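Protein: Glycine cleavage system H protein
Species: Desulfobotulus alkaliphilus
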Amino acid sequence: MKEIKDLVVPDNLSYTDAHEWMDKEAVPSRMGITDYAQDQLGDVVFVELPEPGTRLEKGEVCATVESVKAVSEIYMPVSGTVSAVNTELEDRPELVNSSPYGDGWILEITADDPAALLSLMDHGAYLDMLKGL
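Structure follows.
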């Protein structure tokens, strides 16, 4: 397991307390799981993705990530519609581990209310939360 100081936490993204990240500057907004989350999971072996066009409420399960250790649910950070999914993960789920903020993104969301993105944690708040774990 990585030490907090060794985790990658980009300052241009927003975060949830369930360790999802969102790029709120992009439209639609891209999301995935954080470096902390992938580190805790261990080697990812399967990612179950929703169908594009699926509308989900904030807090609903939008994907499932299976690792050698556990199966974890990924939650919608905001209410909206799944615009796209990273189909590359079907054949290469390990991208979630090797590039959680890049090639390992999970899905794109068109938020019902773009202002809801402002309720997510910024870089500093997320780091503070991690330090409290």
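Remarks: The mean pLDDT is 95.
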